[in-house]
Design brief:
single chain; mainly alpha; about 50% helix; elongated; binds heme C
Length: about 120
């Protein structure tokens, strides 16, 4: 057989094997930014209580303090665990009782988990 025939056979094999092993990729989770995606959720749902003079001043969730409070200087910081994101105190409370009068929407909780999984960066 001529080399071109071999090449054609190889090409056809590659093509068909690619096609048969093709698996639908899962819907990619869009990248999450702390300042654009996470902070607005915390400030609008949590800051009313999580502030000096309010019911839980140990963890201040204001625009300027939330990041440092969650990672470093809140009463029981860190509230995020990037080695085991689902074991984070923040994630635990979001699935259990925070905010106390009705949990966040599941896509908001998913965004916060994704942010922790991506390294809990101040971006
Ligand atoms: C109605 C008031 C209120 C709102 C709103 C609220 N919290 Fe809380 N939060 C509390 C109180 C009171 C505590 C202390 C008692 C407890 O741990 O359950 C607390 C405790 C916590 C703790 C544990 C702190 C620690 O050091 O043990 C976390 C984490 C937390 N809240 C996160 C949030 C987040 C995130 C939101 C918004 C999505 C939120 N909370 C909204 C009142 C509130």
């Amino acid at each position: 057989m001529k080399p071109i025939v071999y090449l054609c056979i190889i090409a056809v094999c590659l093509f068909t094997s690619c096609e048969s092993s093709y698996v639908e990729a899962p819907e990619p989770i869009p990248a999450v930014s702390f300042n654009n995606d996470i902070l607005p959720i915390l400030v609008s749902n949590c800051h009313s209580c999580h502030e000096i003079g309010k019911v839980f001043p140990g963890l201040i969730l204001s625009t300027d303090k939330a990041y440092n409070q969650l990672l470093f200087d809140g009463a029981n910081a860190p509230y995020v665990n990037t080695n085991d994101p689902e074991a984070s105190k923040l994630y635990f409370k979001l699935n259990r009782d925070m905010p106390p009068f009705g949990l966040l929407q599941s896509n908001e909780i998913a965004k916060i988990l994704k942010w922790i999984q991506d390294g809990a960066k101040n971006d």
